[in-house]
Structures are given as structure tokens and as C-alpha cells.
Amino acid sequence: MPNAYVDDAKEIKEDNPFESMMQRFDEAASQLNLDPNIYKILRWPNREITLYIPVLMDDGNYQVFTGYRVQHNFARGPAKGGIRYSPDVSLDEVRALAAWMTWKCAVVNIPFGGAKGGIICDPRQMSPHELERLTRRYTSDLMDFIGPERDVPAPDMNTNEQVMAWMMDTYSMHMRHTVTAVVTGKPIEIGGSRGRAAATGRGLLFVCNEACKKFDLPIASTRVVVQGAGNVGGTAAKLMFEEGYKIVAIADLTGSLYNPLGLDVPTLLNYLRENKTVEGYPEAEHITTEELLELDCEILMPAATENQITTHNADRIRCRILAEGANGPTTADADEIIAGKNIFVIPDILANAGGVTVSYFEWVQDRMGFFWNEATVNQRLLEIMVSSFNDVVAFAEKYRVNTRQAAYMLAIDRVAYDTRLRGIYA
Prior knowledge:
44% of the residues lie in helices and 16% in strands. The protein is an alpha/beta fold. The strands form two sheets. A seven-stranded mixed β-sheet has the order 9-8-7-6-10-11-12. The protein has a five-stranded mixed β-sheet with strand order 1-2-4-3-5. Strand 1 (47-56) and strand 2 (62-71) form a beta hairpin.
């Protein structure tokens, strides 16, 4: 990368998602010959907020939790991004996720910037009352920074529509009137959108369909491996099964299953729902997660968490199409290895953008006070995902780069254009 684009030279740590994101940003900026002044603006978040949140626990004692909200960019509109509850939350992770949201919204051309939030906690060890108190205090502390025209949170890892309902209610109490558009991913009964829960998985189906068309892969003989059986991976696997794909392997936190003849996904998901584990499922071979990622298949879909495909295993990946359901499942250092194997990548900032796209629809519906049926939501999602897939492929062909570089270049180009147009750096 030219020296003009480098501020602080430092060793890239492969498992640091922010450094991985920035490595890709720098490469795309160089390919675009991005104005160095615009580069300086886009390279850093607009705002980082750290909160220390005292919460009364059920045993009568207080515990202080650390929370974050990073607002990366506002050039294209209000910030948008989820909130995750996890013991592993870190500021660097939230920074990376906020930036990814900026690029993701730009790739699918919706009028949002990027943000992300997180609280260091273990929700599995907390009661519903403790989670509610934590959520309400976190929301209250962010009152000056969120809102329908400022920053619109959404669910993420270990948060759900109930958490969003608590956030919306807390914000509304402070505003003295109901503000449904402050968050997305809410229950339908209080302003949520039909089709939102399945949107990320459905978006993955749509882009995989387009990739199969591009390579003339018959759906019925296309073997799919899915890492993750939750809202993203489980939904995508179910929808792809219904479409006729052969789902040969699925993994969740409790284990990994493989059947070369294909899994009955609805039956498997029902088993997982009832037993809280895939252990004991009789219609498949139990394998390790490492073995699952390295299975021979047409589509590999890592839909769990970051840093699953690294320099340590990238040379053993044997898919034709890598569809990234999770954020950052492939490290930047592994990109060159994957590209060298001629694997077609549907990068995370495109592949899993169905969720934020339907969140945008929810925000629009809340602001209009007029709600669409599910068929309308799904049709509009299809149009945006297919158009965005084609935009990325066209950008890759125009600049003779791979699809990950193309997605970043397209996103950065759009954000840079709006930044120049608004005169933010003048």
C-alpha cells in the first residue's frame, strides 16, 4: 500500500477483527486511488462511547457492566447497527462491526451509516429481570446519542426482539411519546416488520441462488455446509433446504453433523429446539467443527462468528462458493489463500446484508405508520439483494479484482462520494 495511505504502521494481528477490517479497507482505498483527505475521515469512527452500567442483581447486590456504542459514519444517513451481549465483547470488535455496518449499508445502497454496540456480560447467567434492568440502563445512558434520525440499534448476538422492546419503551418514556422507529427488530405488535426475523437467512438464499446461476450449478446437486444453526445459519439452511439444495452438514455450539446424502433440516432443527443440543441426533455422523469447515462442497456458509477461516486452515477449504453469513468469518490474512484457490466469495458485507435491509424497511414503515405484508417485504428484499450482487460482480469485472475487494471498493466509493458531496472535509 502506498505510504500516503499509512498513518501508523503496526503489526496486523490476524485474530483482531478491527485490524482485519482495516487491512481490507486500506487495500480497497489503494485500488480506488482514494483522495487521502477522504481516506483520513473514513478510516476512523466518528464517535466511541464507553459506559459503566450499574445493575441491581436479583441477589440484592450491584454489578457494574462495561458497555460500548461505536458510531462509525453518518455521511449517508443515521447510524445503524446491532447490540450484542457476550462475555467476549471488546472495543476493537465493536469498532470493526460498526465499520462493517457502514460498508454493508453502502453495498446494498440503503441510507444509513454504520454503528454497533455491545455489553460485556453472560446473558445465560442472568435472569430476565436482570437483563431488562441492564438494557434499560444502557438505553438511558445512550439517550443523547440514539434516535430515529441519529442512530438506530437492532438485535445481534444474544439479543432479541424482547430486548428491542425494552429499548424502545425506555427511549419512549424519556421522549414522553411512543417512538417505534428508534430500534428495529421489534415484535410485530409494537412496530416490527414482517419478514425481519428470517431476513438475514433469506438474503443468503437469494445471493447463493445468484451465484449458482453464475456458475451453472444445479440447485438439486449443490451441496451446502452451514456453520451455525441459529437465526442466521438455521434459517438459511431451512430456506435453502426448501429451495431444493442438499444441506450435507450443519454445526452449532453443541456439535457438528454430516450426512453426505443430505440432512432433513426441519427435523434436525426441531430436534435441536427440543433437546438444546445436536448430540444424539441419529441421522448423521458427528464430526468436529474443523472437519465441517474442510468438507468438500459447492457452498460453504460460515454463519457463526468471526475468525473461522484463517491462515491455519484456509488451504484446506474445499468449497466452490464461500457465502459469509457471519460478520468477519474469514480473516484478512486468509484472503489471499482463498483467492488463490479460485473460490468465489460472497463477502459478509453483501451476503448477510438481508438483515439490515429489512431493518431499513422496518424503520421506513415505522416512520410512515403504514406496514407491508410479508410478500412485499420479501420481494423488495429480493430486488435489493440481487441488484447488489450484480453491482459487486460488475465492480469486480471492471477493476479486475476479486469480489471481496470489489464489495469494499463499491462501498467506500459510495461513502466517499457522499462525503465529498456534503463537503464534510472541505
